[in-house]
Write a structure and sequence with these properties.
Length: about 300
Amino acid sequence: MNFELCAWCFVLRIPHGRARNGDGSKYKGQKFKAQSTKHKVKLFMRKPVIAGNWKMYKTVGESVDTALALKPLVANANHCEVIIAPVFTSLKTVADRLEGSNVRVSGQNCSTEVEEGAHTGEVAAFMLRDAGARHVIVGHSERRHFYSETDAMVKRKCQAAISAGLTVIMCVGETLDQREQGNAENVVRGQLNGGLSGLTALDLDRIIVAYEPVWAIGTGRTATPEQAQEMHAFIRRVFAEGHTATAAEALRILYGGSVKPENIAGLMVQGDIDGALVGGASLKAESFAKLVNYERR
Ligand code: PEP
């Protein structure tokens, strides 16, 4: 690690994707503050996040079985945050059964509405929080494409989630057509700016971005680590333009799209990849645990 001394503070400078925690994980992720006697030490670490999106799979009983099978397999995973997103009907039971463990529970979606009211079929962010969720996935491509979610809706959902005290995992990503026409960056920029404009500096602490190229979701076709890294670095630049360089440096950006135990290590060594949002391979406790316990090089 590099130490740089200036008149007012120590700044610990962490080479991107190189430095390691005591347990071997990368210094990537969360903000860490400590006090020295005279000076303040401020260090930005991006702690990896491995999140499983269970989509519309599993009954309550199946969800609990999977969650309980997962719990001991990831109990020592201090190098990352572990999140699972069951269907709404299982969320409260799963959250209760995981209480006291290192596995957090997430919603897969929430209403654009902040307050309760006459919105048949919707679930408000504060209700997710009440049911035990600490995170919510917003703007997943399946919601954008099958349920016509717009950037404006994604933005309202992000704001509702933040006001309920949830951390948002906001998904962005281009279709194959858009990539082939050379529009991938424009699309992702639009989704980022559309979903996240107007957030305060404090709100940004509650944002995680997931880059999920639509052509890689559930197809078995993963973006190469280099393709993913290129887009993640772009996302960080766009975030810095729209917000601040500091917020961009602290932002965790997950990759999603056919992540499996066989390909996660190659993705996680990339400097701007701070974790994974996983669909298919998160449905079984054993394979999700392998993802969580990915080999840290
Ligand atoms: C997802 O649903 O967010 C996803 C990335 O799915 P899969 O891992 O199955 O491609």
